[in-house]
Design a protein that fits this description.
It is a single chain. The protein is mainly α and 399 residues long. It has a domain of 212 residues: Up-down Bundle (Fumarate Reductase Cytochrome B subunit), CATH 1.20.950.20. 59% of the residues lie in helices and 2% in strands. The chain contains 16 helices and two strands. It has a two-stranded antiparallel ribbon with strand order 1-2. Helix 8 packs antiparallel against helix 9 and helix 9 packs across helix 11.
Length: 399
């Protein structure tokens, strides 16, 4: 049988035997004993000291220290580093405002870089957007040009033509037929030619009126009739202008087909312009159309093409992604329209009250023979085979 080694038994302490507590010792102490024991415990236990709230004060001190070092002050705003010797000094530069703000200053250099990018020639209008520019100023330049010059002076051209015609009418009066009406007529324009003319005339007048409302409504209509009336008229004019624009292209094409053949210039046409068409002197011979009528026809065709192209570009701006073309289109469109309106006023005057018998050619398609002899003598001789002016040699009349 296995036995515990002697050295283990030598190191093991003997068991401690506790006497069994008696039933009297296990009794609860009396009330007097408890009071006496509590008093002895209070006398023996040391009193606790009240400690200050170190954590709260430490947190407040740390917060105040952070605010002190992070808040900008005038002393901190000033740099203690000296500028280099070649640095530019601006003694008149204003001091920064509170909290190192710009105050009344504006950082024009940064703004110029945002708008202009790299340096360029400021005299170039509608230049390409420079490299590094975050925004383009082309639209602003176009708006200033339109507001300061075009809108301001555009209305003076038609008014100037009206004033000039009024002066001519008062000084010279309308051009009457010297021999009166003969009662005999010559066919001048066919029905299709007259329809093409009046179709162009109606569309042109509608476009002219609506365009002038759009251009001059704000300075001329709004101050007298109010902004509400101007807004309604401008909105209606814009819709009508966009509607009549394509019709103008059709009318222009039809007009070219019907009248281009007889409107090519001839050498003797230039004599007409030197004598102002016989306005203040002897009459100048001409064919079916004189120099003034031919010039007016080609002006309508050429400027009409420009107006049509620029109008389509403004009506469909997605046809180009270059803002310069759009801005240039608005300017060319307005200038071309003003030129046509101004000359059209003179054309209307001569064709109605300025020259006796002229309106018959577009209303009836025929003219009086005396009118043909006085204003288009070469055409009269070609149509009748007669000499318009017996005192004039035949060869000169047909030259």
């Amino acid at each position: 049988m296995w036995q515990v080694p002697p050295f283990i038994l030598a190191q093991t302490p003997p068991p401690v035997c506790h006497p069994v507590a008696s039933s009297q010792a296990r009794r609860e102490p009396s009330q007097a004993q408890r009071v006496q024991a509590a008093g002895r415990t209070r006398r023996e236990r040391p009193a606790r000291r009240r400690r200050p709230i170190h954590g709260l004060f430490a947190l407040l001190a740390l917060l105040a220290l952070c605010l002190f070092f992070t808040a900008p002050t005038p002393l901190m705003a000033q740099s203690s580093v000296r500028p280099p010797g070649n640095a530019a000094v601006f003694p008149d530069a204003p001091e920064p405002g509170p909290a190192n703000t710009l105050g009344t200053r504006s950082d024009s250099e940064i703004w110029d870089m945002i708008r202009g990018g790299s340096p360029r020639d400021p005299a170039v209008i509608f230049a390409p957007t420079p490299e590094g520019a975050l925004m383009t100023t082309t639209g602003q330049q176009g708006r200033e040009l339109r507001e300061r010059y075009i809108r301001k002076y555009a209305g003076w051209a038609p008014l100037g033509v009206i004033g000039l015609l009024l002066l001519v009418h008062l000084v010279r009066g309308p051009m009457r037929l010297k021999e009166g009406r003969s009662g005999k007529t010559l066919p001048r324009f066919t029905v299709t030619a007259r329809v093409a003319h009046w179709f162009m005339a109606v569309v042109f007048i509608l476009l002219a009126v609506s365009g002038l409302i759009i251009l001059l409504g704000r300075p001329l209509i709004a101050p007298y009739l109010g902004h509400a009336v101007n807004s309604a008229l401008t909105s209606a004019a814009m819709q009508g202008h966009n509607l009549f624009g394509p019709l103008f292209i059709l009318a222009l094409l039809w007009l070219f087909i019907k009248f281009a053949a007889g409107n090519f210039f001839h050498p003797h046409d230039f004599k007409w312009i030197f004598r102002l068409g016989g306005l203040f002197g002897h009459h100048v011979s001409s064919r079916k159309f004189n120099f003034g009528e031919k010039s007016w026809f080609w002006m309508v065709i050429l400027i009409g093409v420009v107006i049509s192209g620029t109008g389509l570009l403004m009506l469909f701006p997605w046809l180009t992604d270059d803002l310069r073309f759009l801005q240039l289109s608005t300017i060319l469109h307005v200038l071309g329209a003003i030129a046509l309106i101004s000359v059209a006023i003179g054309h209307i005057y001569v064709g109605t009250i300025g020259m006796e018998g002229s309106l018959d050619s577009m209303l009836k398609g025929e003219v009086d023979e005396n009118w043909a002899k006085e204003h288009h003598d070469i055409w009269y001789e070609q149509m009748t085979g007669k000499t318009a002016h017996p005192e004039t040699p035949k060869r000169e009349a047909n030259s």
